Amino acid sequence: MAKQLEPHGDHGRPVKQPNSRSCFACGLENPFGLGLTFYELGPDRLESHYTVSEHFEGYPGVVHGGIVASMLDEMVSRAAMIGQANRFMMTAKLEIRYRKPVPTGAALHLQAQLTRLVERMATATAQIRLPDGTVAAEAEAVLVPMPGDRKDGALLDSLGWRLYPDNSTQGREG
C-alpha cells in the first residue's frame, strides 16, 4: 500500500513528535544521550535543531563520526513516523556520506524526508547542515517495521513515549 498524504498541523505549523525517556538519540531523561527533538513540517518532511556538546567529539572540536551516524539514523527512522507517531521502524540499511567535519558547539539543522512507504518497508534520506547551510553529512536508509507489537499502551508508558515540553531538553538543543 502506498503512502497516503495527510494534512499537517494547524495552518502548516510544525508538529512535534513524541520522545522516549531513555533512548540514546531521543531520550529526554537520558543524561548521557543526545536529547534530540523532532518537528514534522509536512506529510513527508521533518527537522531538528541541535548543538552537539564537546563530550561527543572525536578530534578536538569535531563531532565523532558515530554520533553523526546516530543523528542521521534517528532522523531517517523519525521520517517514517510522520503522521503516525507509533509507527516504529528500524534501520535495515544505512548509507552515510560524510562531506565536512561536523563541529561541536555549532547550531546544526537536521532534515529528513520520507521518500517511500509501503506496508513492510520505507526509504528515507537525511542531512546535517552547518549554520551556513552547507551539508556536512547525509544518509539514505531502508527501514523495516520493528518486530512485535510496539503500540501497546503499557509498553509505550514504560518507554516514557510521550510529548515532552520543549524546555525538557535542558539546553542541549540549539
Describe the structure.
The protein has one domain (13-158): Hotdog Thioesterase (Thiol Ester Dehydrase, Chain A), CATH 3.10.129.10. By secondary structure, it is an alpha+beta fold. It has two helices and seven strands, in the order βββαββββα. The N and C termini lie far apart (38 Å). The longest helix is centred in the middle third of the chain and has 15 residues, at 65-79. β5 and β6 form a beta hairpin.
Measured by DSSP, the beta-strand proportion falls in 25-35%
The CATH architecture category equals Roll
Shape: globular
CATH fold label: Thiol Ester Dehydrase, Chain A
Question: How many H/I helical runs?
Answer: 2
Number of structural units classed as domains: 1
Summarize the amount of helix as a percent range: 10-25%
Number of strands: 7
Largest sheet: 7 strands, antiparallel
The CATH superfamily bears the name Hotdog Thioesterase
Instruction: Output the helix-strand order.
Output: EEEHEEEEH
Measure the end-to-end span: 38 Å
Mean pLDDT, all residues: 88
Give the strand line-up of the largest sheet.
1-2-3-5-6-7-4
Quick overview:
This protein has 174 residues and is of the alpha+beta class. The protein is 13% helix and 30% strand. The chain has a seven-stranded antiparallel sheet, covered by helices on one side.
